[in-house]
Amino acid sequence: MRPLRGLISTDIQSRQLSLQWENLAFNLTRCHTYSVSLCYRYTMAGGGGGHNTTVRECLAVEHNASRFTLRDLPPYHSVHVRLSLANPEGKKESREVTFQTEEDIPGGIAPESLTFTPLDDMIFLKWEEPVEPNGLITQYEVSPWGHFC
């Protein structure tokens, strides 16, 4: 038995990752009784200067499957993935492969972070980045909520 090979992404979106790997055959599993697990991890930044949290999970893959879609992932994050093949004789793990989910629409700006200072000919606005930027913020757009006279 050897580790599974050929782990690639077939589709990357902001909150899901579709993966594929080599087909399973008896010459690879060396046994009719085997299991495949897909293990992944990613790190979430702690809010307000808190500690980072690493999310880890291993999921059982259907027998004879050579593809799987991870769902409910955070946007714009590195996701580290490996496959584990086990039979009654032991377990082999593939090398870890890193994928990055796509960007998504940013979360809202906390209203309490918005401050404004009226000046003679303008209003100075200041705000904090959204708690969930979901990517690199390259532009903000400010539009009035009501009519100003």
UniProtKB/TrEMBL annotation:
The protein, known as: Fibronectin type-III domain-containing protein
Species for this entry: Ataeniobius toweri
Organism phylogeny: Eukaryota, Metazoa, Chordata, Craniata, Vertebrata
Tagged with keyword Protein biosynthesis: no
Signal peptide residues on this chain, from the entry's feature table: none
InterPro entries, A to Z: FN3_dom, FN3_sf, Ig-like_fold, R-tyr_protein_phosphatases
Positions of the Fibronectin type-III domain: 3-104
UniProt keywords, alphabetically: Disulfide bond, Repeat
